[in-house]
Amino acid sequence: MNIKDIVNRDIVNLTNCEQEPIHIPGSIQPHGFLIAVHSNTYKIEFCSGNSKDFTDISHEQALGKSFDTVFGEQALTDLKGYIEKKLMLSSSLLKISLFNKHFVCTVHKSDSLYIIEAEPASVNEIDASREYNHTSQFLSYMHDTNTFKELCQLVAKGTRDITGYDRVMIYRFDKDYNGEVFAESVREDLEPFLGLHYPHTDIPKQARELYMQNLLRIITDIDYTPVPIYTIDKSENKNLDLSLSVLRSTSPIHVQYLHNMGVGATLTISLIYQKKLWGLIACHHYSPKNLSPELRLAAKLQGHFITSQIDLRQKNEEYELSQKTNTALEKVNAIALTENHTFDELIASPHLLELCNASGVSILINNTVYKNGLTPPNEQIQKLSSWLATYTQNGHTYTDKLISLLPEYKDMCEDTSGLIYHSLDIESNNCIIWYRPETKKEVNWGGDPNKSIIKDEKGLSPRNSFKLWKEIVDCQSKPWEKPELDTAASYAYSLQRQINLLIITQEEEKYRKLSELLKETNSELENINWISTHDLQEPLRKIQLISSRILSTEKDIPEKVEDSIRRMNSSANRMQTLLIDILKYTRLKHEDSNFEPVNLTDIVNDLITELHETIEEKQAEVQVDQLPVIQGIPFLLKQLFSNLISNSIKYSAHDRKPVVKISAEAVPVVHNDADKMLYRLVYVADNGIGFEQEYAESIFNIFTRLNSSNEYKGSGVGLALCKKIVQNHGGYISATGKPDEGAVVSIYFPANKVVK
């Protein structure tokens, strides 16, 4: 059997001290011994080298054997009973007898192992009544103190009374894990540490993570000799995770650190708040000192009490602050932005500063700065707003140390060290910013924080100087509290809504005025159009009358003169037709007649009768299928089909008989993919001269003609009139054509307006 220790002998240096594997030192402190058994077989897999000092059984004798073989059946029964009752998860300790010696054990599970740490039961025993009295005393602290600091001070004193340590400190971390001695109870002849700060490097990250897992840590003698842990060597790098161990050996750097402070023994209790390491109860003794496991639990209970009060006291403070800021928020929200109530009046309100206890505030709207209180100059506000809009992507942020974000603007950061920023527009620099000035403060450090780790000819070691080292902290404001941040965010959202509402109101008013102006203009144009068309028709009628009379009464008119008079008469006729069509087109958009059922088959058949002479003259053929009955305006629909049939006959080919076919789809169809409505589709097809498809849309524009006016007469208004009629019926009209083959006009009537 090859037995080997698992002591971690990695050399700690400047490059790996932050990653020092302190959870697997492979050794323990000598005031107890450790055994690790397999969770299924209870076979002893690990054993500390000092087991013989306590039980007369060496690690060589124990390793590889079952727990009952080494310590007896009763010991195994006690261990299994403790585990099966899940007492490991409680504060209960395992009391066990090994070879007629009484031990108090802590037991926890690590992977597939149960780790048992045993200490003699006779060390510093105290009676239960003393523990109860101390616990009762602490409960009275919660009622006898007004501030959290007072409470912590009493806890420090109470913990020192229970444990007997020379110094007990309540150690609080900031957001960067720099520590401050927040409260302290200390032996009268010792120098107090109250108010001193210690850099985050004094307690590195991996140590803080262990404090989160194991809430109590004890070192009974700084000058202890680590006891190696042994195992049967079956694989390389076989280790034992001691994260939850109470006997775990300590990092040599930490031991040296305590040596440099002159400390002989320590007890540390973690204070956890909102799943983060808030601080520590740190107990120092200047000579070796051990506590019984029961007394450690009593001290640990102090930590539970104080962490319960962190949340309660902090929430009470936040509630009081929240009440104050919410009152200011209600008052400032009562100031509504209107046409008459401008940003100048809003920014002057003192409640705008009170809602987050700021010293200054600025609002930037459309490159205009409105400000109140202690703020940067307008030019700097413009630059700052632009940078923050980019930095936050038009979002929000806050800081109590602006210089850490903008080191190049030191002058501005000295006057404006803290700010809360909220964008008011996702596409511009519009924003609201609250400001706080620099709050200079003197921080007393327990030694120079820049010299927490020293490298000399002896290698790597912690600092050995703990002399008072003072630092002046500048370019930093008082931190923003959560209620202040919440209230600022709430108002920024409210202001954004008010601004949007004001913009909408202003736009509505602008469009209302434009609508009224347009209505007046249209009315005037309609009157002018009616007057113009009416007055122009009168001279045209005279031209027609005189020219017709000359042609009928005068017999010896020269041929050229007669031809000119006929052309003049024809132009007057075309001019009159154009005026009538324009009048119809302009009046069409104002038509508000009620819809009624219209049989399109009857409409078309009536038109064929009315257009009989034109059809006969062209020898045209008009074919009509069964058409739907729709909801519409009869005379407009008659005008629609009259124009379409007339156009088909007018633009017929000279070499073939004109044929016009009017038909309809049997079932409703979809006009396009974007429009999911159903329509009844009616076709007007002909075999006339057709057109190029590139003109399919432009032919429906007013005054658009594709053919020479000499060959085909018309005003260019007909198809535009058709389009307007179809639109008034909620439909669509389109055309397809091929030159010299014909054209097809498609009319879509809404299916919900189809009667059958």
UniProtKB/TrEMBL annotation:
One Pfam family per UniProt: HATPase_c
Chemical reaction(s) catalysed: ATP + protein L-histidine = ADP + protein N-phospho-L-histidine
First-level EC class: transferase
Keyword Lyase tagged: no
Superkingdom of origin organism: Bacteria
Domain Histidine kinase positions: 531-753
Keywords (A to Z) from UniProt: ATP-binding, Chromophore, Kinase, Nucleotide-binding, Photoreceptor protein, Receptor, Sensory transduction, Transferase
SUPFAM superfamilies in alphabetical order: ATPase domain of HSP90 chaperone/DNA topoisomerase II/histidine kinase, GAF domain-like, Homodimeric domain of signal transducing histidine kinase, PYP-like sensor domain (PAS domain)
Domain Phytochrome chromophore attachment site span(s) in chain numbering: 147-304
InterPro entries cross-referenced by the UniProt entry: BphY/WalK/GraS-like (IPR050351), GAF (IPR003018), GAF-like_dom_sf (IPR029016), HATPase_C_sf (IPR036890), HATPase_dom (IPR003594), His_kinase_dom (IPR005467), HisK_dim/P_dom (IPR003661), HisK_dim/P_sf (IPR036097)
An annotated Gene Ontology molecular function: ATP binding
Protein's UniProt keywords contain ATP-binding: yes
UniProt-listed Enzyme Commission number(s): 2.7.13.3
Membership in a protein family: In the N-terminal section; belongs to the phytochrome family.
Record's protein name: histidine kinase
Native organism: Flavobacterium rhizophilum
